[in-house]
Hints:
Layout: H1 2-9, H2 15-48, H3 52-102, H4 112-132, H5 134-152, H6 156-181, H7 184-204, H8 206-211, H9 215-267, H10 274-284, H11 288-315, E1 334-343, E2 346-356, E3 361-365, H12 372-380, E4 387-392, E5 395-396, H13 402-408, E6 409-412, H14 423-428, H15 436-445, H16 449-453, H17 472-486, E7 490-494, H18 502-514, E8 520-524, H19 528-531, E9 536-541, E10 544-545
Parallel strand pairs: 3-8, 3-9, 6-7, 7-8
Antiparallel strand pairs: 1-2, 1-4, 4-5, 9-10
Helix pairs in contact: 1-11, 2-3, 2-5, 2-10, 3-4, 3-11, 4-7, 4-11, 5-6, 5-11, 6-9, 6-11, 7-9, 7-11, 9-10, 9-11, 15-17
Amino acid sequence: MRVMLRLVGLVRPLMGFMVLAILMGVLGHVCAAAITVLGGYGVLAVLADGAAAPLAGLIAAMAVCAVARGLLRYGEQACNHFIAFKLLALVRDRVFRALRRLAPAKLEGRDRGDLISLITSDIELLEVFYAHTISPAAIALFFCAGACAFVGSFHPLLAVVAAASYLAVGVACPLVAARLAGDAGARFRAGAGELSSFVLESLRGLDEILQYGAGAERLAQMDEWSRALAADEERMKRSAGRATALTNTVILVCDLVMLLVAAALHRAGAVGFDGVLIPVLALMSSFGPVVALANLGSTLQPTLAAGERVLAILDEEPVTPEVTGEKHVDFDGAAAEHVGFSYGDKRVLTDVSLEAPAGKIVGITGRSGSGKSTLLRLFMRFWDADEGSVSVSGRDVRHVDTANLRELESLVTQETHLFHDSIRNNLRIARLDATDEEIEAACRKASVHDFVMSLPAGYDTPVGELGDTLSGGERQRLGLARAFLHDAPFMLLDEPTSNLDSLNEAVILRSIAEERTGRTVLLVSHRPSTMRIADTVVSVENGRVS
């Protein structure tokens, strides 16, 4: 119920369309039920005197109701789907914003396939809720209230029978269906996310799978996952079938009860023959809205499970909350003072102090796993230090506006990610307003311009998914070009030349050295040749500076 209420709350920006959808839905069901009820009055007219004029009027009214029903149904569905697709876009936007807030600390080690499943299929499932749940529930409430009032005009007891029938079909049946379904929906959504992760991992490691002949084993694992999902889906379908059978049975019983009660009242002289025929026909023709709710009993469970996964992402608090509203800071050096940091129980940095004065290149060496890369990420505020402080221009990074901090810093890692787009657009994310001349200048500094121009479409050449069409060195140089294009005063370079030959390394190091005016560089590398351009070199060993 909590999940449902929160999902309903998202409809507020589109409440006008929702009210319109409900109104058209109620009127549409009134028209549908009126066709049967008017037919009943036609029978009464024939039995009374068989006059042609009343019959012609009733037939015309039935025709009008039939046309109006079609138009109103179309309008209701159009409004509901408009609301659904608008809200899905809104939810995707909010989820992406949440992931941005959570990255990278909360997403480190998280299943990427599971996140992909959440952003795609889980959010798509919410369309069922927004288009086929919210307004149908409201329509059923208003329509059933009106139907009870109409039936009750013949006798109050008939209104009680109608109300009990609607509650049995629209409330009791869905609850029973949900209990029959159990947690199959939640298991199915979780399993779908795990299968997505497995498939994504298999595709990324396809070369290794082929090399070591592990294809059969991976295929067997995938089949096992698929069989488990199929079993959960089969259970959900069986539950849905049982729920449908239960609903149809309850409807027949309710119709029979209404007939028996109306007949008893007629025999007692409390109602005429019209009080038997019309209420029975009205009830038989008015189950449409509550049947729609009853059918949601089993199908709604995986939808709500998906909604719970989406809301969990939206509710998750970031490790490093975004800072806004702080006074703008101009870069004037950076420092780490007595910094301590741990990944869970694993101690990475202990009492680390480091100065990075403006206009200087500070080199950091040390063995793998000693905490060099972690120190750079603390300056980026991807994580916050457990002890001590990390500062920029004398201000703790925890009190620097996040957008301002991103403008002041640029980070180049060992593995540069390239998007499935052109080289030009991959570079331009560093500065959206960059001109072609500025892009070219940045690439020349990174010793990658000649390579780009050798490609079939130059800077407009598409990069394969995950940059697989390029070598590690080419991707790394494009990452450096991004950093040069960003033109931040504080560059943090994590093994920027690890995948480069000595010639390209020399060109890039010369560019870095030439760019030191008005710029501070924090340079992590194992290579002694890389450290030659550093003004100061410090060593990090076992999480300590020496």
